[in-house]
Amino acid sequence: MKTLIVGARGFIGSHLKEYMANFGEVVAVSLSSLQGGDRKQRLTQLFASIQPDICVNCSGAAHVPSSFSNPLNDFEMNTASVYEMLAAIRQESPGTRFVHLSSAAVYGSPVTLPIAESAPLNPVSPYGYHKLAAEQFCQEFSSIYGIKTVSLRIFSAYGPGLRKQLLWDTYCKWRDSTEVKLFGTGDETRDFIFIDDVCEAIRAVVERAGFGGESINIASGTAISIREIVTLLLKELGGAHQADFVGQKREGDPDSWCANITTLKALGFENRTSLIDGIKATAQWLKEQE
To answer: What Enzyme Commission number(s) appear in the record (predicted)?
Structure first.
């Protein structure tokens, strides 16, 4: 099996590159290497030359606040590029199965928990809308052109190598100050999944999913409060630091997320990394950054 990973320099892409090498040939590219000149033409040439069995799109911008300040860039990275990949596959490599990494942001602030794939889609940020539009492109190319696609709604992935978002922000404030001040109340909940389990989930999808344009939740299926996970991390980092939540909510941040992963489990996925073990591994990597 030949796997093409687009976005191989990013957090998920870099881990997936190493993981998928255990199961066949891997070709890894970054989206930035395809920028400049005609990206559409470069993508067309890429798929014509490689003819991958699987393409996993790990590329894109993954920063909700930036999608408010620069929505056009977010659209280019998360939506336009996906359409161009699908068009290139249709033209040059129609047998390629396309795995698009979407986001739980397509749900917005859910009415009920846990969130099933059939839940209403109501994004609360440009990022969420752009991820949803990319999913719709995948559905379009599947239903109209017969391209095999699947979109994976990633919840809160974490682990060594992630230099952004909650745990990285907590570490930087622990490292640089005696105070760890964070947005929100701390009572908000998220569904965290360790990066090794994300890779396992992607493999389960590649091996068993229908690739009919469907969307699948990628998560642990367990909710934890922001306060709890930050407290666990600070304990592993050491020192007398405690988190101080300022109460101010960031634009685009939902209150609570927890995924229904029945569909993913039906593909044979099992969450293997406990939160404690995942936080210990993450803390160890963070301390090595000093």
So the answer is: 4.2.1.46, 5.1.3.2
Residue 31: CB atoms within 10 A of its CB come to 23
Full-model pTM = 0.95
| Beta strands 54-57; 97-103: pairing state | parallel
pLDDT tens digit string along 119-165? Answer: 999 999 999 999 999 999 999 999 999 999 999 999 999 999 999 99
Residue-number span of the structural domain to which 26 is assigned:
2-157+194-218
Pair (97, 73) in one structural domain: yes
Q: What distance in Å separates the CA atoms of residue 105 and residue 120, rounded to the nearest whole number?
A: 12
Return d(Cα 127, Cα 120) in angstroms, integer. Answer: 17
Q: Which CATH number is 37's domain given?
A: 3.40.50.720
Helix (H) and strand (E) counts in the chain: 11, 12
Q: Output phi, psi for 283, to 5 deg.
A: -60, -40
Helix, strand or coil, per DSSP, at residue 237 = helix
**Per-residue DSSP letter, 253:** -
Dihedral Cα 136, 141, 143, 148, nearest 10 deg: -110
Residue 147, phi then psi, degrees to nearest 5: -75, 135
Segment 19-75, tens digit of pLDDT: 999 999 999 999 888 766 688 899 999 999 999 999 999 999 988 889 999 999 999
Both tokens of 143, joined, read 């239903």
